[in-house]
């Protein structure tokens, strides 16, 4: 369907991670005010190529499922306006880096969530439902530190932006380590030692080179870089104490 009015020139990465099927397709898409990158992808799928595969759910920045690489940078596409990222009237949209491609723009998130679990990311309660509820001072430094990191939506933008993950697939990565830091500071988490054991290991926090792409690009304005710095301090203190 030929578009009338202003248009965008959009290149979309297609295929699977099997190199023989990878290609880039080009589309001309009608341009609109306040258009998001996800709107562009949806227009292509509904009007130009119904086989285009991508992932989204909430469309309002809550679920973390719509992240893609847009003009070379990982973004949550439902909250990224085209006007902010377009270069010379062109958009290039691809899957997230550092994760296997399932098809087109949809990546396999298993390695991301496996590392979240491997970093000790499951909560271990200090009490049962039958014990009295213990108050936690909301101003306690530990609670304040934990609160700073808990709004992660698991979008994987930080993970895709991390050069250390790209060079060392065993590295747990910024989101898993950010989660670990919230548990280290959670006064109701029973296994702080277990978390510190894992994050001080070979794939842990000391691999981070502290340049901070994760913090610069987190769409929810979290600060994994500072969380990882906290883990480095905690694990180093522990090592000096011989534990
Ligand atoms: S600061 Fe560390 S975790 Fe963040 S992107 Fe850089 S290497 Fe990765
Ligand atoms: S820390 Fe930020 S960028 Fe990373 S997964 Fe969580 S919300 Fe996304
Ligand atoms: S679709 Fe849910 S965060 Fe974008």
Q: What's the CATH C level of the largest domain?
A: Mainly Alpha
Q: Which sequence of strands runs across the widest sheet?
A: 2-1-5-3-4
Q: Report the structural category.
A: alpha+beta
Content of β-strand: 5-15%
Which series of helices and strands comes N to C? EEHEEHEEEHHHHHHHH
Superfamily (CATH H level) name of the largest domain: Alpha-helical ferredoxin
Cofactors and ligands: iron/sulfur cluster, FE2/S2 (inorganic) cluster
The count of β-strands is 7
Main sheet specs: 5 strands, mixed
Domain count: the total is 2
Spatial extent as radius of gyration: 21 Å
Q: What number is the mean pLDDT?
A: 94
Q: Could you say which overall geometry the principal axes of the C-alpha atoms support?
A: elongated
Description:
It is a single chain. This protein is an alpha+beta fold and 243 residues long. It has 2 domains: 7-107, Ubiquitin-like (UB roll), CATH 3.10.20; 110-240, Alpha-helical ferredoxin (Fumarate Reductase Iron-sulfur Protein, Chain B, domain 2, Orthogonal Bundle). It contains 10 helices and 7 strands. Strands 2-1-5-3-4 form a 5-stranded mixed sheet. Strand 6 and strand 7 (106-107) form a beta hairpin. The chain is elongated and about 65 Å long. The termini are far apart. It binds iron/sulfur cluster (2 copies) and FE2/S2 (inorganic) cluster. FE2/S2 (inorganic) cluster is lined by residues 56-59, 61-66, 76, 78. The site of one iron/sulfur cluster has 14 residues, from helix 9 and helix 10.
How is this structure best summarized?
The protein is α+β, with helices and mostly antiparallel strands and 243 residues long. The chain has helices at 37-47, 82-85, 110-118, 141-147, 157-161, 163-167, 174-184, 192-199, 213-217, 224-240, and strands at residues 7-14, 23-30, 67-70, 73-76, 90-94, 101-103, 106-107.
């Amino acid at each position: 369907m030929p578009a009338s009015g202003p248009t965008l020139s959009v290149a979309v990465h297609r295929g699977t991670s099997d190199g023989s099927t990878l290609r880039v397709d080009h589309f001309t898409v009608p341009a609109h005010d306040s258009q998001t990158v996800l709107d562009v992808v949806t227009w292509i799928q509904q009007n130009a190529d119904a086989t285009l595969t991508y992932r989204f759910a909430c469309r309002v920045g809550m679920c973390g499922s719509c992240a893609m690489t847009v003009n070379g940078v990982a973004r949550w596409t439902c909250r990224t306006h085209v006007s902010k990222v377009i270069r010379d009237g062109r958009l290039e949209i691809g899957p997230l880096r550092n994760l296997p491609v399932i098809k087109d723009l949809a990546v396999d998130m298993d390695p991301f969530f496996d590392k979240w679990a491997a970093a000790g990311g499951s909560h271990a309660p200090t009490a049962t439902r039958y014990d009295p509820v213990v108050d936690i001072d909301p101003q306690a430094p530990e609670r304040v530190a934990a609160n700073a990191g808990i709004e992660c939506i698991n979008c994987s933008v930080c993970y895709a932006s991390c050069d250390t993950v790209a060079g060392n697939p065993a590295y747990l990565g910024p989101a898993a380590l950010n989660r670990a830091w919230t548990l280290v500071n959670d006064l109701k988490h029973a296994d702080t030692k277990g978390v510190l054991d894992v994050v001080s290991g070979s794939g842990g926090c000391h691999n981070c080179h502290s340049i901070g792409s994760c913090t610069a690009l987190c769409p929810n304005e979290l600060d994994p870089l500072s969380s990882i710095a906290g883990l480095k301090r905690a694990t180093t203190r522990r090592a000096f104490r011989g534990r």
